[in-house]
Amino acid sequence: MRKAFKYRLYPTQPQRRDLDKTLMLCRQLYNAALQERRDAYKKAGRTVGFYEQKRYLPEIRAELPEYKHIHSQVLQNVIERVDLAFKGFFRRVKAGQKAGYPRFKGKGRYDSFTFPQAGTTGVKLQEGGKRVLLHGIGSVKVKLHRPLEGKIKTATVKREGEHWYIIFITEVDPKPLPPSEEAIGIDLGTNPHFLVTSEGEMVEAPRYFQKAQAKLATAQRSLARKKRGSNRRRQARRRVARLHRKIANQRKDFHHKLARRLVNRYGTIVHEDLNILALSRSYVAKGIHDAGWAQFLAILAYKAEEAGRRVIKVDPKYTSQDCPVCGHREKKPLWVRAYTCPQCGTLLHRDVAAAQNILAKAWTGPSGETLRAFPQGNTPRSPGL
Question: What range(s) does the Cas12f1-like TNB domain occupy (predicted)?
Fold first, then answer.
């Protein structure tokens, strides 16, 4: 399987200028390749393909000396990105979705370049992993905060705000965890709990964005008052970007740690198959973006796959309306968090009941037939409050 390892780079000032110049030249090549495809179709009705554009790269390097310092495979990857953008466009057109024609990349909108065969050429680790040699840039200090595993396949140098990172994609052998018969259902929320399990555990929502709103508002007001193009405006913009980056990093760290804890303990994890894109455009959008459901579920899925665990998606319909003990269905407003089932008299906490219903759906078919028995200790039960 393939795995990504992301490390912080610490380039010197001359190296920063070379990295910025490389991004600028890659962006110009991307826009030129995009313009060529647009003009060829508009003027001659002809489609220009990936291999045709790639054949012109030696001529570009011969006529424009600045491109000689960039690795040839990095330039090929730029052409490949244009090709992938058009393939995505045609795929969406064919599927009847919103197409989104490929756009030109403005200044500051092209933030990475890739060495497709970093294991053999273009990138080399030095001094026991303390530095990395990048073609056209030089020997750059790198912080390997965790060991690099597996065989290196690609390496991407990326700019995030004021910081530079290198992302290695490696081939590693799977490391499955010991088998576990334990199963858990999880119900995602935004406030006050990020996650509630079918066993009654409640994980408080950290709400990093909400806690940082006052600082963000101050920084954004300061940015709005600065003159466009001025040095102070650039500094104010960096302050705003730094705050957003900190929030994103805090949220990702929380997601990684919670997903790891679930994967280490449970062999099967069941969650609702939510339409997060639609929910993120509703009246609860702010809370959902702050919670980061999509990122958490993606992290949970790949950690489970690596560990040999199962993650199951189930239909979210009626999970918060059904009694997990007797199956009685009663619609209650969202602000009602605990209630007594009128059919069997069970005292229920709404989120725990929903998590138990989510787990139960993983073992039953659409008609209610039992597909698999519950693992021991995971049958639905009435939770205490």
Answer: 293-358
Does 77 lie in the same domain as 201? Answer: no
Say whether both 376 and 253 belong to one domain: yes
Among 146, 171, 196, the domain boundary falls at: 171
- Tokens at residue 369, please? 């037939």
Do 146 and 192 belong to one domain?
no
pLDDT exceeds 60 at position 368: no
Residue partners of 96: CB distance under 8 A and separation at least 6: none
Are residues 222 and 165 part of one domain? no
Q: How far is CA 310 from CA 126, 197, 304, 306, in A?
A: 39, 16, 6, 10
Question: Can you tell me the mean pLDDT for 139-158?
Answer: 95
Indicate if 155 and 181 belong to the same structural domain. Answer: no
pLDDT at residue 385 in the model? 35
Catalytic residues: 187, 272, 351
The residue-averaged pLDDT of 103-131 equals 92
Measured between alpha carbons, how far is 232 from 225 in angstroms, rounded to an integer?
Answer: 10
Give the separation between CA 353 and CA 330, rounded to whole angstroms: 13
